[in-house]
Amino acid sequence: MDKNMESVAKVFTDSPFWGFMGFEIEKLQEGDVGLSLEVREELYNVNDTLHGGAYAAMLDTTMGMTARSIENAPFVTIDMNVHYLHPIKEGTIYSKGRLINRSKSLFTLEAEVFDQNHQLAAHCVGSFKLLKKNKQ
To answer: Please, what is the end-to-end C-alpha distance for the chain in angstroms?
Structure first.
């Protein structure tokens, strides 16, 4: 992993939320991010399946990391539209993100979550605002 991607990874992995959720980086290249998350009981909803908020957190994090892998600067989520496609009760889930469009300060991205059998479980499109560029 090059130094730029190492700095992107560090921003996310140093976050207390990252540690709380238990995300793992599967792939981190410019514009190409994949994460994984072990499904555990603490992340269940009242139906004993993975809570929609866990899906949303993974999708948001995947898109944010994808944006930052392209433009290594802070972003904030402006909006997200999540489609929940099927429930997951166990195993490991995986995500991947990609850039759809960008302007000077606004990135539109999408991300998907898959179960361990590669079945699509959730899809999301989100807008992310570039806050400022890092001085290098």
So the answer is: 19
Q: Is 86 helix (H, G, I), strand (E, B) or coil?
A: coil
Integer CA distances (angstroms), 39 to 11, 17, 55, 98, 111, in order: 23, 16, 10, 23, 18
* H helix count then E strand count, the chain: 3, 6
Position 1 scores a pLDDT of: 75
pTM: 0.94
Q: Is 133 exposed, middle or buried (0-12, 13-18, 19+ CB in 10 A)?
A: exposed
Asked if pLDDT for residue 47 goes beyond 80, the answer is: yes
Select from 43, 111, 45, 119 the least CA-distant residue to 83. 111
SS3 call for 3: helix
CB atoms within 10 A of CB 76: 11
Name the residue type at position 117.
N
Where do the domains of the chain lie, and which CATH numbers do they carry? 3-130 (3.10.129.10)
CA-nearest of 92, 84, 85, 97 to 116 is 92
